[in-house]
Amino acid sequence: MNNSTNTEKLLIRNDSVNQKKKRTKKNESKLGNYLLRQIISRLGRVGATYVYLHQLWACDLTEFNQIQVIRLIRSRTRLLQKQGVDVSTHFQINEKTIIAQAIRLAGLWDDHLNSKDPLQNLLIPGYEDLMAVIGHPPLSSKRPRQWFFKVLLRLERQTADYMAHCLQEIGSKKSIIVSPEVFLSREKQVERQKTYAENHQFVTIAEDESVIAVPFLSPEDAEKKRFAKAYVRLKGLDELCTSLDLHGFFVTLTLPPKFHPNPTKGQNSWDGSTPSDGRVQMQKNWANFRRRFHEGGGKCLGARVLEPHVDGCIHWHLLLYVSEIRIPEFYRKLADAFGAGVATDIRPIDRSRSTGSSYLIKYLNPGLSISGDGQVKEVQSHVEKR
To answer: Using CA atoms, how far apart are residues 79 and 302, in angstroms rounded to an integer?
Structure first.
């Protein structure tokens, strides 16, 4: 009996044994657990080859090693691929299906709110698992269908990306940052936005009762406008902190290896964490740093830009300013919160070479920059490797 069969039997042990145990192990990632279930459910439709995965659908995945399940998915998927089965067809993003589901959920949501005591349970009956992940529309929302479509589309994209992460198909020399299905879905979305902007305009009535029509900004123009606003804020921040005699630092903060699904360098030690888990962890580390730094009387001003590695795992670029007396503590507290070495890269700003804002500008939008005459221009984009 091979190791694969032993692994499968371990994963599909009788759940009645688990019922006798007190289940204290909590799932570290509710989203990751749900995405795994979605993948297992879809692969279970392929055929008898996935009988074990299909049975897993009824099990409590929190009782198993998550990466063990991912390895089983990976091995079974590659076996099907060798047999000529196109597994990717089960992870294509069909927006018509999502719209239909959003309409159905919006109707059920309205019915649920009109029922007796809806506030005691805001989960639609029959969709508890789904709503435990996506939440529910604001109670004051008048457009629940649009809300459901937005979150369901995001969840569908996350499912496609997570499957690609399981198969190590996102990373260097492969699909960059996101899966091909997600990239295609986003391209279609941008094209729809561009078409809408070209065919619509804002209309208002002036005091003299004349009609004023203002065209929509195209997605490209809107992005340039956001970039310009962010750059102005950075320049203002840099000038303010310089006037206060604060010292500037360009900081890059990186997550531990377990958050990287397919690192460019080193051994792969991914534990099944989603990009959302990475964002949550970064926020926790940052809150920890701020608390410790402020307890000692230290304060810092700055700005932050989030950027993904080629495998989709995020890292932060920050422009931070601190007083001279707090610089040693600043180094120490950052290392305590995020880890020393490559996880925390701190570089003092060299005023003889450039301003503080210029350190961060290329990360605001990798495809945009500021020309000498102050105009937003397009440049060749880049993606950082890990």
So the answer is: 50
- The string of pLDDT tens digits covering residues 275-315 is 989 999 999 999 999 999 988 787 888 888 888 999 999 99
Residues 125-181: pLDDT tens digits? 778 788 888 888 888 888 999 999 999 999 999 999 999 999 889 988 788 899 999
**368-370 and 376-378 as β-strands: parallel, antiparallel, unpaired?**
antiparallel
272: left (phi over 0), alpha (psi -120 to 50) or beta: left
What are the chain's domains?
Answer: 3-89 (no CATH), 92-196 (no CATH), 220-378 (3.30.70.1910)
Output the pLDDT for position 29: 57
- Bridge-partner residues for 377, per DSSP? 369
**For the chain, which ranges sit under pLDDT 70?**
1-29, 44-65, 116-123, 218-219, 365-386
**Distance, C-alpha 274 to centroid of its chain:** 8
pTM: 0.79
Are 44 and 50 contacting, i.e. CB atoms less than 8 angstroms apart?
A: yes
Alpha-carbon distance 121 to 123, whole Å?
Answer: 6
Q: Are strands 247-254 and 344-348 parallel, antiparallel or unpaired?
A: antiparallel
Q: How many residues does the chain have?
A: 386
Are 272 and 70 spatial neighbours (Cβ–Cβ below 8 Å)?
yes
Mean pLDDT computed over every residue of the chain: 78
DSSP letter for 216, please. Answer: P
Q: Is 314 helix (H, G, I), strand (E, B) or coil?
A: strand
Between the alpha carbon of residue 77 and those of residues 39, 53, 64, 177, 291, the distances in Å are 11, 11, 20, 21, 45
Give 384's DSSP letter: B
Pair 314, 279: CB distance under 8 Å: yes
Q: What SS3 state is found at 145?
A: helix
Q: How many CB atoms lie within 10 A of CB 89?
A: 9
Distance CA 248, CA 100 (A): 51
The pLDDT of residue 89 is: 83
The three-state secondary structure class of 24 is coil
Q: Which residues pair with 213 in a beta bridge?
A: 203
